[in-house]
Amino acid sequence: MQTLKSNDESNSEAERRIQRLSLHLNPIPIPHLTWNHHHHPLQMENCSRGGKKLIVDANSLTDYMRGKYRDIQEKVFDYFNTNPQLQTPLEISKDNHRELCMNQLLGLVRGAGIRPLHYVVNDPAKYFAILEAVGSVDMSLGIKMGVQYSLWGGSVINLGTQKHKDKYYDGIDNLDFPGCFAMTELHHGSNVQGLQTVATFDPITDEFIIDTPNDGAIKWWIGNAAVHGKFATVFARLKLPNYDVKGISDMGVHAFIVPIRDMKTHQTLPGIEIHDCGHKVGLNGVDNGALRFRSVRIPRDNLLNRFGDVSRDGQYTSTLPSVNKRFGATLGELVGGRVGLAYSSVSVLKVSATIAIRYSLIRQQFGPPNQPEVTILDYQSHQHKLMPMLASTYAFHFATTNLVEKYAQMKKSHDEELVADVHALSAGLKAYVTSYTAKSLSICREACGGHGYAAVNRFGSLRNDHDIFQTFEGDNTVLLQQVAADLLKQYQRKFKGGTLAATWNYLRDSMNTYLSQPNPVTARWEGGDHLRDPKFQLDAFRYRTSRLLHSVAVRLQKHSKPLGQFGAWNRCLNHLLTLAESHIESVILEKFIEAVQSCPDPSAQAALKLVCDLYALDRIWNDIGTYRNVDYVAPNKAKAIHKLSEYLSFQVRNIAKELVDAFDLPDHVTRAPIAKQSGAYSQYTQYVGFE
Ligand SMILES: Cc1cc2nc3c(=O)[nH]c(=O)nc-3n(C[C@H](O)[C@H](O)[C@H](O)COP(=O)(O)OP(=O)(O)OC[C@H]3O[C@@H](n4cnc5c(N)ncnc54)[C@H](O)[C@@H]3O)c2cc1C
User: Fold this and answer.
1) What is the DSSP letter of 43?
2) Helix residue spans in 521-601 (DSSP H)
3) 181: Cβ below 6 Å to ligand 1?
4) Bridge partners, 253 (sequence order)
5) pTM
6) Is 221 close to ligand 1, i.e. is its CB under 6 Å away?
């Protein structure tokens, strides 16, 4: 068995070995940051592992990355740090976890005095910052808070009118009115228009009668329903007596406030049956339940009537002309949940990457005979696992921060284009980021070997709790199709001479470039300056998206005659999903490049540029087959891209410590003993009981 050695024990032999390990990587000088207005020379130092290493000041990087709302995040961290009774233990039963989670939320609101609904309404970016911090205390708590404030609170605020705000705002905010968001049914999750619960208007009593017409319509998976909820926003088909035809008209899916438990006794109200959805793969601090309604009467006022209303005499009114438009507007108001998930998923990725990288910097395994062992992050394979992931974490940080800003702007301006933009962008980023994080959590666990499997080192709970982020608030495969559909709409608009929404603007130029063949001269350019030029990188991403968009549009047209629209869509589905992902990658890169360019500190800017180049080139390399197939990249260039991305991984490894430090996650947030910033091994041995 190899003996464990501390970090300090590296000596010149080990350094020489690492140098040998990295000899195949020709150092390529870091190109001038031509867009750096400050023109400070970049500071480099000789690296013990060979080559040059950037000198990075993690603090200035943190200052740049840190959102405006760090103070409130620290308030959350401090509150839980100083209230150990509110920290979630590693082993806890489902029922205890649910109670603890409710107490954590009560503590946050009534103990720490943080009022999330206030921020949902007035400062959404601050609300998402709180959600992020709370999620890193316990992801169940983040979701519980999301159910109460984004979903239950958000539906009342965004789908209701002033009378609803007057009646419910304070109770939701101070948790007197814990509530649920009851959309999904046993038979329908993604296809919300297929919901079957009904709300029939009774003009005699001026009430709606809520019914579950069959078992397929039982509301399922409803967070906060099994134990704590007193109210639910129930999505149901609004039915009205139609006197003209002596029948009933279906006005489509609407939202209704339904009290489900008695305010005083907490007993389930008559006509309502509630069951527990049971033990889950993760998020067991959230009490998901199933609800059945049998002729449950609620006042007419409980219809959340912003987009459609029913008068005392049973007349339906709406400013929106069709069922589809009303449905679109209703769901459009709920994108906040998606924005929050994308943003929180990045924070899960930050925690996971921090644990894996900090540990990989102290862990040593193997070495040349009779020589000190090598730090595992110096293995090329390990760099390949973790460095592009670290680069992606940075990329997602800037992309989701931008999304949050856009969302906050949209809430203020209600500008129609911005609404459409945020809708598609939130769908795309939520799908892309949560899928990436889910895969990365397994990679991080594996990168930490056996110790990654100890529950105390977090990967198990992070993976289990986060996994469902891929499904709720819109299944990722379904969301990507919305992005593809939106791109096709924009594409058609372009050919009709219309304008493009801001996020898709690039398509105007790149579609034109695409329609000509790739340039055979630039296809051969392989110099480091060229490959690290943001213009080359963005062009390559956008070219791929434009090409996929054009080709799928042609294919859809071809297949729609024999197969119909639905059949044609299904025939091209994988192509459409690749298109959506490619587009989202372009947007992420664009936001990253903008963030690098606006960074005021030269050392932080140089570090970000390195990371951004790795993000871009690694993605291009991952999809090199596509680029080669159309001769966008000649064989020599493909080889240069591969070599450069390996080299960049190596360079990023050199500043990996500073890069994870810049996430600014204190040990009491990362919590894993193997990732402690000092004495990791001793904390780990103490955890299992050694003195
Ligand atoms: C822990 C948890 C908490 C939840 N909390 C709530 C809550 O509080 N309130 C609430 O209303 N709901 C809640 N949900 C429900 C959740 O929103 C749904 O599960 C989600 O929307 C997906 O729907 P589904 O389960 O019906 O999946 P399905 O739509 O049945 O999807 C199953 C599979 O089919 C694929 N698929 C479906 N449609 C298509 C298509 N058109 N093209 C290609 N593939 C397709 C999907 O990609 C997926 O892989 C929760 C769920 C869970 C597990």
Assistant:
1) P
2) 528-531, 534-571, 573-598
3) yes
4) 237
5) 0.93
6) yes
Structure tokens at 51: 């080559």
Amino acid 7: pLDDT: 44
* HSE (side-chain half, CA atoms, 13 Å) at 357: 30
Does the beta carbon of 255 sit less than 6 angstroms from any atom of ligand 1? no
Give the distance (Å) from ligand 1 centre to CA of residue 221. 10
pLDDT in tens, 525-545: 999 999 999 999 999 999 999
CB distance 477 to ligand 1 below 6 Å: yes
ipTM of this predicted complex?
A: 0.99
CATH architecture of 334-667: Up-down Bundle (1.20)
Q: What are phi and psi of 386, to 5 degrees?
A: -105, -25
Which fold would CATH assign to domain 179-325? Butyryl-CoA Dehydrogenase, subunit A; domain 2 (2.40.110)
Q: DSSP 3-state assignment of 525? A: coil
Distance (angstroms) between ligand 1 centre and the Cα of 219 equals 13
Residue numbers annotated as active site: 473
Domain ranges of the chain: 70-172, 179-325, 334-667
Going by alpha carbons, the residue nearest to atom 12 of ligand 1 is: 184
Q: What is the C-alpha separation between 383 and 21, in angstroms, rounded?
A: 12
Distance CA(81)–CA(48), nearest Å, equals 38
What residues does 185 pair with on adjacent strands?
A: 219
Ligand 1 atom closest to Cα of residue 474: 21
* 566 close to 413: Cβ distance less than 8 angstroms: no
